[in-house]
């Protein structure tokens, strides 16, 4: 099973493809230097397979590589960062 996370800037979201099928996404709103993540969804056919965690890791690594910061309003993303404090440095607040 191959997983690929890529940004779909036109739809303001990061998507995860599993064997070339769209398996989930995490949506954001650009706000200055930050991306406000508002919602994450994994197709029920792919739940329980680590797809959500792979989506979070791939998204956060890409955000880090681009030098951006995040506001995790999405409960799934917020919980992931709480369990993986190595991504806490990406979190900011809107001022």
UniProtKB/TrEMBL annotation:
It holds the Pfam family Acetyltransf_CG. InterPro entries: Acyl_CoA_acyltransferase, Gcn5-rel_NAT, GNAT_YJDJ. This is N-acetyltransferase. Residues 6-92 form the N-acetyltransferase domain. Gene3D superfamilies: 3.40.630.30.
């Amino acid at each position: 099973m191959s997983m690929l996370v890529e940004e779909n800037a036109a739809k303001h979201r990061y998507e995860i493809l599993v064997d070339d099928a769209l398996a989930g996404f995490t949506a954001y709103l650009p706000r200055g230097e930050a991306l406000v993540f508002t919602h994450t969804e994994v197709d029920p056919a792919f739940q329980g397979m680590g797809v959500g965690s792979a989506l979070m890791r791939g998204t956060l690594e890409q955000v880090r590589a681009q030098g951006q910061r995040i506001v995790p309003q999405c409960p799934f993303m917020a919980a992931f960062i709480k369990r993986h404090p190595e991504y806490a440095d990406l979190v900011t607040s809107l001022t």
